[in-house]
Amino acid sequence: RLEANRGSAAARNAGIRAAAHDLIAWLDADDFWDTDHLATVTPLIERCSDAAVAFGRVRFVDRSNRIPWGLAAPCPGPVDLLSESARRCVVPIMAAVTRRTACLDVGGFRESLRAAVDFDLWLRLAVRWPFVWTPQVTANYRWRHAPSQVSADIARQHRSIWQSRMLVRAELQASPASPRASAMDAPMREQWRTELAGAWQQRDLATVRLLLGLPGVPGEEGPFAARLRRFLGLAGPAAPTRASSFAREA
Hints:
Blueprint: H1 8-18, E1 23-25, E2 32-33, H2 37-47, E3 53-61, H3 82-87, E4 96-99, H4 100-105, H5 117-128, E5 131-142, H6 154-173, H7 185-201, H8 205-212, H9 223-232, H10 243-249
Parallel strand pairs: 3-5
Antiparallel strand pairs: 1-4, 2-5, 3-4
Helix pairs in contact: 5-6, 6-10, 7-8
């Protein structure tokens, strides 16, 4: 128990430090596992010594119209998921088993963030290690739009996800020895353009402004983004921001 509420990242980091085993599974208070979750997912990571994360898929409880979350295709073996992790959160945290040593090596959850902290951790782990998974549904996510549920604040989650992308990319660029410094450029650029077009079609101007205000999105914006800037009276693309200052904004 922590003396002060410092967010889920700090609480999970305290758990990582206290853990005695090298494999850690996650379960928040409002979610639940199938009875065979650990028996199904744990052997995946035990068989793959180079994998940092193993996971199954998640069914949404109380939202019957949503398809299960996770990767539906069978896993051929440990897979590099950096590009996919830069696009979306591929790992439902309540369905994951992670290596404690890998979590510690990347510094655990980023405590400067209060939302989408799992997206940020998976992205940083994917920079260095492959993941392994099963398309079997093994866990349950109780999704509801209650004010107390952080994931109900979609705008906050969205902004935090983009902050994580920019932070991880800046950290890679700051490490000349990293061979993956530009590995996130293409998926980030593709995701940015897709989200911008979708937000404009839905007339979601708050998201449009968020995306156009991001610092240093890789690649040229193109004429569509330039027209949106003129329409909204916005300045040109923001200058790239150093990872340290972007973390303070997060």
